[in-house]
Amino acid sequence: MTRTEYLDTINGQRYERFKRIIKTVRLVVNQEPKGKNSSNEEKRIFRSEIRKQLKEQNRRAFRSDIILEIDYFTTKDNPPAIQTLSKNYLDLLHKEMPHIDSLKGILYKDDSQIKILICNYHIDEKSSKTPSIELKVCNLRYFLADIELAQKIIRNDFTDSDYSLESKFEEKLEEERYYNNKDYFEELKDLEEGKNDYDKLFGKRYYKMQKSFLIRQIQEQFLKQNNLDIRSLISVFQPYFSNNKKYFSNSDFQSIWNGSRNLISFSPAYLHFGNAPQVSGEKSIFKTNLKKELQVFKEKFKVLFPLLHPISVIVTFVPPKQKIIDLDNLARYIVPFVNEIFNPPTIVQLTYKDSYFTDLLKNEYEITQRFPPNSIASYQLVQLPRLKNDPQNGKIGFLITDGFYHMNNVWRTVDEIIYKWEDCL
């Protein structure tokens, strides 16, 4: 069997996947996450620790495009906004800072290499965590290879295909679909119609708590549907797949890829923000358009407001033909307006009213750390392949999705499909 033939088998693909996994870099710095106001000594320690851990793993700074995930575990009261934290640490990871140390390009050479950025905000509700900044990073081409593997799994596209395996894999996916298709609207309707009976049997407190729970479940269901699922990721990234590279300049293929990529924008919950500000005067226009689109969304989907469920933001962008988009600024333009207009709860406990609970339950849900009550839980910036007929200045799209589980992101979505498949082997 040739190597090419081996790579078309299940074991061949599993081996290639294993090689990609061990090349993923994970770094942890036990330090309270801070914004630009952190001291020079704190910045020096962070940079030094990143450099030290890379050296211990026998790794150098990345020179090609990457996917980067950052988790901020805060413990101090009133931590900085998530986009403020990211601005600080993205700079610390690559910029030359002679007033602090002699290092530069520590994790990557330039932030234009970051094609997918995932940032997660963790709150220390019980004062039991160690403050830290955790990073996970790998070469973008490995992530794209995993998406390509996910496509093979869904199609059962292996030379030694096992149809019993395909059946077991489909059963695992079906379990997830069942949960997502549960009709909480019907349960809410039954609850409201039987309000008097509920009040008599359980009391008004139970009725209010149950109604709040069902509304939150409805919101969670809606938000999860807005995620970039595996089929969406396959659609938008297929121009980068190994088998498609030779067709990249072909106009027919470009047209097909553009059509499949546009499927994600057909969702009524997908917002279009135009292009990112590039010249003087465009920033105010962009912000005005952004606020308008968010307000329209709020009016259109009244079931989501007031929000009882934490949210995550996904920003998709096609880069302009010439100028590079600054990821730091893109997040700082969008996130504050989302917080201002949507007022999302930072954590779900903030949506519980004291009147719902007994003293015992109040103690159970007591939150120790003080923090902004309204903030997104995480955000993702995803750069899409630029195709032939894309606007000269690029374009930006926007989705709000489930923010309750911090691991619900594009990286985890791909990994989950592969994990489910491997569990069936």
UniProtKB/TrEMBL annotation:
Single GO MF annotation: magnesium ion binding
Per its UniProt record, what InterPro entries does this chain match? RusA-like_sf
Q: What name does the UniProt record give this protein?
A: Uncharacterized protein
The species this protein belongs to is Maribellus comscasis
Name a biological process GO annotation.
DNA recombination
